[in-house]
């Protein structure tokens, strides 16, 4: 078993971080690691996820959502073929800190399977996790500083008019 865990403290409440995390359509605009996600964040739903780790070849996979707790946790399980060949349990945990005004994000993946020693590149994946966390932090903090610039703002969004 191999585990990558990366934490990020974000100056935004969990609800704001959650909104950014679930706005899959905007990932190509800001996310340097997970370049796209298609599908619904609902338990048992299949997603199509495209990752591009720094310095590595990108890949697309189709995990199944295994946990959704609003403003708190999102997790999915991805597999290469059959179980225990190469499984990745990917999760995001949002914990309120400083009375709920800020968020501690835990971005973690646990890898299991007989091909993990051959396919697992911890350094590249950890760099990708860090890059995503930092970009998510910037986006969520910008939203708190300028709440009228969110995706539902009709004054600044000509497509919403």
Automatic annotation (TrEMBL):
InterPro entries: Polyketide_cyclase/dehydratase, START-like_dom_sf. CDD domains: SRPBCC_4. Gene3D superfamilies: 3.30.530.20. Residues 147-161 have a biased composition (Low complexity). SUPFAM superfamilies: Bet v1-like. Residues 140-161 are annotated as: Disordered. PANTHER family: CHROMOSOME 9, WHOLE GENOME SHOTGUN SEQUENCE, SRPBCC DOMAIN-CONTAINING PROTEIN. This is Polyketide cyclase/dehydrase. It comes from Natrialba taiwanensis DSM 12281.
């Amino acid at each position: 078993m191999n585990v990558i865990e990366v934490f990020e403290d974000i100056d935004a409440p969990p609800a704001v971080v959650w909104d950014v995390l679930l706005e899959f359509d905007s990932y190509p605009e800001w996310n340097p690691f997970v370049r796209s996600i298609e599908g619904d964040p609902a338990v048992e739903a299949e997603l199509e996820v495209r990752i591009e780790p720094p310095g590595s070849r990108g890949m697309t996979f189709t995990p199944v959502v295994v946990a959704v707790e609003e403003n708190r946790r999102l997790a999915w399980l991805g597999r290469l073929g059959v179980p225990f060949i190469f499984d990745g349990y990917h999760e995001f945990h949002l914990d309120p800190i400083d009375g709920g005004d800020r968020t501690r994000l835990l971005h973690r993946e646990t890898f299991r399977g007989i091909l993990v020693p051959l396919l697992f590149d911890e350094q590249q994946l950890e760099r990708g996790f860090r890059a995503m966390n930092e970009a998510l932090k910037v986006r969520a903090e910008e939203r708190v500083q300028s709440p009228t610039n969110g995706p539902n703002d009709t004054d600044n969004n000509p497509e919403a008019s």
